[in-house]
Amino acid sequence: MKRVKKPALILALAATFSHHSTVVHAAPGLVDVYQMALQHDAQLAQAQASYEANQQIMSQAKSLLLPQISASAGLNQIDSSNDANTGNLQEIAVSLQQPLFNREAFSRYDQAKYQLEEAHITFRLAQQNLMVRTSEAYFNVLLAEQSLRLATSKEAADKIQWEKAQASADVGLASRTDVLQARSSYDLSISDRISAENNLDVAYEQLMKLTGQPLTALKQLMLQVKLPSLALDKTALELKAEADNLTVRISQQRGQVAAEEIEAQKSAHWFNVNLQAQYVDRTYSGYSGTSAPTDRQDTTIGVQVSLPLYSGGRTSAQVAEARFNSQAANIAVRDAREQARLDARIQARNLERGYALVEALREAVKSSEAFLEAAEEGYRVGLRNMLDVLTARANLFQAQRNLAEALHNLVLTQLRLQSTLGELNIDHLRQLDMLLSNQN
Question: Which residues pair with 302 in a beta bridge?
Fold first, then answer.
């Protein structure tokens, strides 16, 4: 079987980060998973192929400014009512045409520069999107694992609670209602654990689609980790997003392409000047008379000027079409800038409230733990009922799960903001990787 080669840019990117693979980890981290995705992800490979195809745009545009050389050959039989003029003609010709002035070719060349830059930025955007998609899939797995651990722990605790209630009821120290409440909570815990197992399987499947490799464990983000804060000057963030956001820059390049298209279409009203040269070798044979044509070689060189006079209004219509397309492209630039500013504001607000939410949920976990401990002690001495204990345990489970979700969302929001600002790169993933742990 023929081995398929990886695209050059993707292999180069993977090699840049290859030093991570020499470090032995008990479980892969975010950068390790990104390396896998870098070499496997279909969307990035598609973007790579499109980028390499667009690399040819400049060569195509440049060809319109370079000499055009062609050759032809022909063998003709000439029949005439006069036998003396009947014979064969062998003709070989080489022609050259060099544009001296061609406004459309100049416009297409300038247009190709913007198209090439657009292709480059588009590929960078695909790389950033892969970082975000990989991080989302990674932290979806971590959240699913955390949810399963919590569900399993709650199931075990509820089972013990139910068994204790059953034993107490058997000796007359607990009511039938306590047993039913405990059993109901235990049954719900089983269903929560089954659902959590399924969610974890799905999360790993989605991660495997990115990496192409089955993974069974990942580095963890511990609930007590302290995340580094970002500077959140909303005005500065909006200005940076408006200037550096990759989607904005792509729309700007498209606007330039549309503007050059107007000039290219208007060039149909202009004259063209070409240098033309031709060499023709004519050889005659088969003539019976004495007046047979003489073999000859002709060389011609000259300058040709052509000017279109009327094309039925097609040129004017094409120019008008190009102007409207340029107008649409400029509106798209405005829309992209507004969207970038909006995304920067929203993500900055999400970060502000995200930091506060994480701190609030950490306090909620502490208070829920204290409440559960007090409820269990109160139940043992007869001051609390079974429902209080079960409610306290459910509240603790939910608070811990909410804390894990808020923490992961905070990390992803940081990455999304950096992507909106057009600056997301592998170093940001490395910084997050340093916060991850092999502990479960």
Answer: 276
Model confidence at 232: pLDDT above 90: no
The 8-class DSSP code of residue 304 comes to E
Are 436 and 221 spatial neighbours (Cβ–Cβ below 8 Å)?
yes
Interior angle at CA 258, CA 254 and CA 261, nearest 5? 140
Nearest to 242 by CA among 192, 234, 291, 107: 234
Dist CA 43 CA 49 (whole Å): 10
Task: Please state, as a whole number, how many other Cβ atoms lie within 10 Å of the Cβ of residue 1.
Answer: 3
Q: What's the chain's length in residues?
A: 440
Would you list the domain boundaries of the chain?
8-65+103-269+316-433, 67-101+272-306
Do the domains 67-101+272-306 and 8-65+103-269+316-433 match in fold?
A: no
Residue 382, CA distances (Å) to 173, 342, 378 in order:
10, 56, 6
The tokens for 211 are 């990496």
Distances (CA, A) of 117 to 11, 18, 124, 272, 340: 22, 28, 11, 29, 20
| CATH code 1.10.150.530 for 8-65+103-269+316-433 | no
- Residues 10 and 378: their CA atoms lie apart, in Å, by 62
DSSP letter, residue 97: E
Specify whether the CB–CB gap between 333 and 248 falls below 8 A. yes
164-186: per-residue pLDDT in tens?
888 888 888 778 888 898 899 89
Domain formed by 67-101+272-306, architecture: Single Sheet (2.20)
pLDDT class of 400 with cuts at 50, 70, 90? very high
| Whether the Cβ atoms of residue 272 and residue 305 lie closer than 8 Å to each other | yes
Are 153 and 299 contacting, i.e. CB atoms less than 8 angstroms apart? no
Average pLDDT over residues 255-270: 92
Beta bridge partners of 272: 306
In 171-268, alpha helices (H): 176-211, 234-244, 246-266
For residue 25, name the pLDDT band (cuts at 50, 70, 90): very low
Token code pair at residue 191: 């269903």
Nearest-angstrom CA–CA distance, 151 and 157: 10
Q: Is residue 73 over pLDDT 80?
A: yes
